[in-house]
Amino acid sequence: MYIHQLKEWPDFQWNSEQVGMLLAEVRYRQGRLLGQMEGLGFRLKEEATLQTLTMDVLKSSEIEGEILNPDQVRSSIARRLGMDVAGLVPSDRNVEGVVEMMLDATQQYTLPLADERLFGWHASLFPTGRSGMHKIVVGAWRDNAKNDPMQVVSGAMGRTKVHFQAPDADILDKEMSQFLDWFNTEDKLDPVLKAAIAHLWFVTIHPFDDGNGRITRAITDMQLSRADGSRQRFYSMSAQIRIERKNYYDILERTQKDTLDITAWLDWFLTCLNRAITATDDTLAAVIRKARFWENPAAQSINERQRLMLNKLLDGFHGKLTSSKWATIAKCSQDTAIRDIQDLIERGLLVKEAAGGRSTSYVLNA
Fold first, then answer.
1. Residue 24: CB partners within 8 Å, gap ≥ 6?
2. Fewest CB atoms less than 10 Å from the CB: which of 59, 68, 87, 363?
3. Closest Cα partner for 10 from 256, 214, 253, 321?
4. Helix/strand/coil (H, E, C) string of the chain?
5. pLDDT tens digits in sequence order for the chain, 366 residues long
């Protein structure tokens, strides 16, 4: 029996004392982070938000096994938020759809969540009406028959394991109405706890043919934005869930097959969120390093190709940067790439790597 089949569903219970201690620690870290960010300038906060939202979109998709292009995701977010960012690239339709959903959730977090809004998110995720090779119901609740239940399974044909079975399609209107009424109603429940419960509740209803995980995490981010009272995002729950993906699926399965006492789920969610907030220290360090780099007088009056490539190095360039890679990425000739690089070396912004080899490579002058 799954929790949604219990007579008391969805009357969730938990150990308030145990959960309260964890919640207090999360709220303390959350408050300290937001306080730190207030002390930074507008550009730094803007860059931190761009980094966090980019990570959120990438990692939420990765949890489902879908790898998106980081440059496309970053460019799509920057364009939609009206940020003045160098080196923007065109984005694929699937990237634009995921970004559209995430930004609607986090930038319009004060608006109510409704059927039509969720249908819009779902349509954004599946603009062709297909998931892989399969045609799916888009922009509506799933309509699978009782003899073809919505199940979460693993393994190959003939040796599959059923981890979870969602409520029947014919009760989805009732289930979602109850969820949305609760989600949109202000109550005394701490908004961070509400994010944890909303996550479990929505993913248990599993109302769509596909995309339930990504929409669940968008709803979670929407509620965490409400908890922060801010459109700016400085920590990524999805990035931390990606790191802890196996534990995430394990606790979900155990909770969905247990009683309506969800203390263990809340414990895991709050601990994961705590680690997500702590991990922000690395993101902020990178953002501050980047800002200080661009404040350097030597970084002024450079061309767009140079700005593009320096940003790639600051964001963590994969592999060795050579003049031929520069020419390919910046879409210029090899001679132009060499001139760009030499100019940055003379400005003290780039240096040749000490290691020799057949191709000379370059790194930032730390």
1. none
2. 363
3. 256
4. CCHHHCCCCCCCECCHHHHHHHHHHHHHHHHHHHHHHHCCCHHHHHHHHHHHHHHHHHHHHHHCCCCCCHHHHHHHHHHHCCCCCCCCCCCCHHHHHHHHHHHHHHHCCCCCCCHHHHHHHHHHHCCCCEECCEECCCCCCCCCCCCCCCEEEECCCCCCEEEEECCCHHHHHHHHHHHHHHHHCCCCCCHHHHHHHHHHHHHHHCCCCCCHHHHHHHHHHHHHHHHHCCCCCCCCHHHHHHHCHHHHHHHHHHHHCCCCECHHHHHHHHHHHHHHHHHHHHHHHHHHHHHHHHHCHHHCCCCHHHHHHHHHHHCCCCCCEEHHHHHHHHCCCHHHHHHHHHHHHHCCCEEECCCCCCCCEEEECC
5. 899 999 999 999 999 999 999 999 999 999 999 888 887 788 888 888 998 999 999 999 999 999 999 999 999 999 999 998 767 889 999 999 999 999 999 999 999 999 999 999 999 999 888 887 788 989 899 999 999 999 988 876 667 889 999 999 999 999 999 999 999 999 899 999 999 999 999 999 999 999 999 999 999 999 999 999 999 999 999 999 999 999 999 999 999 999 999 999 999 999 999 999 999 877 777 777 887 888 889 988 999 999 989 988 988 788 889 999 999 999 999 999 999 999 999 999 999 987 665 678 999 986
